[in-house]
Specification:
four-stranded antiparallel sheet; signal; DUF5104 domain-containing protein; 175 residues; single chain; alpha+beta; 41% helix; 4 strands
């Protein structure tokens, strides 16, 4: 009886291990979840906290983004997120629209193109933001990435700003 129980437990362990190892999240899936999550932006340096020292703000701002997206973006990827204002549109929307949560993140229409030293991936993303007033906001984005083949990390990020929910929502913020 002991051997039977031991065999059963061993099989359960092997089965659970196989189930857990079956599907590994792609770097872009993890990045997207991080990008749309309001929790990500709570650790980003806030300009209003650096009234007198713009240089310190610039340094801390870059470092806080680097830390927030560590493991997903290399230096070029970080620049491609920050420089064209993709990141600041998410950041300002979280802060000024009272976004408290995200749910129902769905990644669809994934297209991959194998290049010599990187993979090009494009996809559509839909998700729902919840606000501190209880409102739900349906969001849609079209994103694209260059993923470095050597270290499996994102080296470029693009957003279709003409059809972007986050860009449209950020444009309604009264500064």
């Amino acid at each position: 009886m002991r051997k039977l129980v031991s065999l059963f437990l061993s099989l359960c362990l092997v089965f659970s291990f196989m189930m857990g190892c079956g599907k590994k999240e792609n770097v872009y899936e993890g990045f997207i979840k991080k990008l749309v999550d309001p929790e990500t932006y709570k650790s980003i340096a806030n300009r209003e906290d650096y009234k007198e020292d713009i240089q310190k703000f610039i340094k801390d701002y870059g470092e806080s983004y680097e830390k927030a997206f560590e493991g997903y973006l290399n230096k070029d990827g970080l620049d491609s997120l920050i420089r064209p204002a993709i990141a600041s549109n998410y950041e300002e929307t979280m802060r000024y629209k009272g976004i408290t949560g995200v749910k129902d993140i769905k990644i669809s229409d994934v297209k991959k193109d194998d290049k010599s030293d990187y993979d090009y991936v494009s996809c559509n993303v839909s998700y729902v933001y919840t606000t501190d007033s209880g409102e739900s906001i349906d969001m849609k984005e079209s994103l694209a990435f260059h993923i470095n083949k050597k270290d499996k990390i994102i080296q470029n990020v693009w957003i279709d700003d003409k059809n972007s929910s986050i860009m449209k929502l950020a444009a309604t913020i009264k500064r």
